[in-house]
Specification:
Order of helices and strands of chain B: HHHHHH
Largest sheet of chain A: 6 strands, antiparallel, barrel
Largest sheet of chain B: none
Largest interface: A-B, 56 and 46 residues
Shape of chain A: globular
Structural class of chain B: mainly alpha
Strand order of the largest sheet of chain A: 1-2-5-4-3-12
Radius of gyration of chain B: 17 Å
Number of helices of chain A: 5
Helix content of chain B: 55-70%
Oligomer: heterodimer
Number of helices of chain B: 6
Helix content of chain A: 40-55%
């Protein structure tokens, strides 16, 4: 019996070790291929996510809804105070709304007088947040819109108010939005009203720092931060947030989008900005005035006209 | 009798995969989309190590590799690296599990801690050498410490829920071998 046992183990152990080795080699290969040809493996990743996450959706939605409900339930304790606060805010909002409407009308009239053509309005696709990144190191969410909805890499995602992130990684039914707080996020911005260009770099904190500022003296906390169209990736003028100063004196962006509750995100369709590639053609007079303008080239054009048939006939013979 | 043992074995294997998927699923729920200042424990890793130390025969290498590769893909980590390191770590722990069976819990905990630390260090070294952008060091260490702190809780829970106990030295498996 004892002998039998050792025989079996001798037989099984090398096979096991071989299988283990093969498995390890496979994993090494996956990692190396990812390192060498990252886009292709990222496509595979997007496809896996595309397959796995929407299939969990039918449980995910009720569970997150229940947890949100419980969180809301806690706020019932101070519902009276909240109600009064909301009423007061609503009153203020009504005044603002009136002012905004008047300004809008005035703006429309002035634009009409000046015959200004502004940027075309951006259209958007709205998606529901399916999942977050699931790890504390990555700040991203997964939307339920993807390639079949015409989503493209690099498009901007906003909630109702401010920019949230950009699309990075698309499956057939899902798309990943890398949030502005992610460490790999870099967004060119413009700080209004001074018009300074800067870069907002995510660093895994709730308020990403502002870097590469030309002149920090002209920027004050409270200034608006909007996206710059630089690089042609983002449409210009999307609200990102407000400048704030942290205790170390570093300028950061307090994001306008509500990162606590990302439920619906709109992905802005960005057809891309047209670029002017040719330097511009020579402006030649046309119509009846043309022969008067080039009398000199006319005689030389005659031998040229004779030469052309010879060349073409030669080509026919050959 | 033998049927029941086989069934029990497959149940526990299935329990590992199912629990790992459940943890991943909970992690993916979009409940908190703000940037966190602290990192919670990697429960899948703690569970895997708990199985490797306590019941290595219920933790097929293929299951570990599969679960970890899926976690890599879903959690946006470099695919394959963490899976490989965890596979090597669990195999090392499995090899030591027979010796650990007779030791008290503190020794088991320290061994798991050593494996965890080794994984973190090797992962950072590999990523540095290959110049891959890395996660902040503070958060990574915080997660490692949290994982280690969560290990007893995970093992206790697994003990209560699936009866994941250390094998008794006198236990004999269905082929008549000493486990």
């Amino acid at each position: 019996m004892a002998r039998d046992r050792t025989d079996r183990e001798d037989f099984a152990a090398p096979l096991r070790r071989l299988g283990l080795g093969l498995l390890a080699v496979c994993l090494v290969l996956v990692f190396l291929v990812w390192r060498i040809d990252s886009p292709r493996v990222e496509q595979v990743r997007a496809r896996v996510v595309d397959r796995v996450v929407p299939s969990m959706d039918w449980v995910m939605t009720p569970v997150s809804a229940t947890v949100d409900l419980l969180r809301d339930f806690q706020s019932y304790q101070r519902i009276v105070a909240q109600n009064q606060e909301l009423r007061r805010e609503l009153q203020q909002m009504k005044a603002w709304k009136e002012a905004a409407l008047q300004l809008e009308q005035e703006n429309a009239r002035l634009l009409d007088l000046n015959q200004v053509r502004l940027d075309p309005k951006l259209t958007h696709v709205t998606g529901v947040v399916l999942a977050d990144s699931g790890s504390p190191f990555r700040q991203s969410v997964l939307l339920n819109v993807g390639a079949r909805d015409g989503i493209k890499d690099g498009w901007a995602a906003m909630d109702g108010i401010g920019l949230v992130g950009r699309i990075s990684g698309i499956g057939q039914k899902t798309a990943r939005v890398v949030l502005l707080t992610d460490t790999s996020s870099r967004i060119p911005v413009r700080i209004q009203p001074s018009g300074q260009a800067a870069l907002v770099t995510g660093d895994n904190t709730a308020a990403p720092p502002i870097g590469f500022l030309e002149n920090a003296d002209r920027v004050r906390p409270g200034d608006r931060v909007v996206s710059a169209g630089d690089g042609g990736v983002f449409p210009a003028g999307l609200l990102i947030g407000q400048v704030a100063e942290d205790p170390n004196g570093r300028l950061r962006v307090r994001l306008a989008a509500d990162y606590e509750r990302l439920e619906f995100l709109r992905v802005l369709r960005n057809p891309g900005t047209e670029t002017i590639s040719d330097p511009g053609a020579l402006i030649m007079p046309t119509g009846p005035g043309a022969p008067i303008a080039d009398p000199a080239p006319a005689p030389t054009a005659v031998p040229g006209a004779e030469a052309t048939p010879e060349v073409s006939s030669g080509a026919d013979n050959g | 009798m033998a049927d029941r043992v086989v069934l029990h074995r497959w149940m526990l294997r299935l329990a590992y995969v199912a629990t790992a998927l459940l943890v991943l699923f909970v992690q993916l729920l979009p409940l908190n989309t703000t940037a966190a200042r602290w990192a919670g424990p990697d429960l899948v890793l703690a569970l895997t190590f708990g199985f490797a130390v306590r019941r290595p025969e219920f933790l097929p290498a293929l299951a570990v590799a599969g679960v970890m590769l899926l976690a890599d893909l879903l959690l946006h980590r470099p695919p394959g690296l963490m899976a490989l390191l965890v596979l090597i770590g669990t195999e090392a722990l499995k090899a030591r599990s027979r010796g650990l069976r007779d030791q008290n819990f503190a020794v088991e905990w320290m061994t798991v801690g050593a494996a965890l630390l080794a994984i973190v260090i090797v992962q950072r070294v590999v990523l540095t050498v290959l110049m891959v952008p890395q996660t902040p060091l503070g958060l990574t260490l915080m997660q490692a410490v949290a994982t280690l702190a969560a290990y007893p809780v995970v093992v206790l829970t697994a003990h209560l829920v699936f009866g994941l106990t250390k094998a008794h030295p006198a236990e004999i498996d269905i082929e008549g071998r000493r486990t």
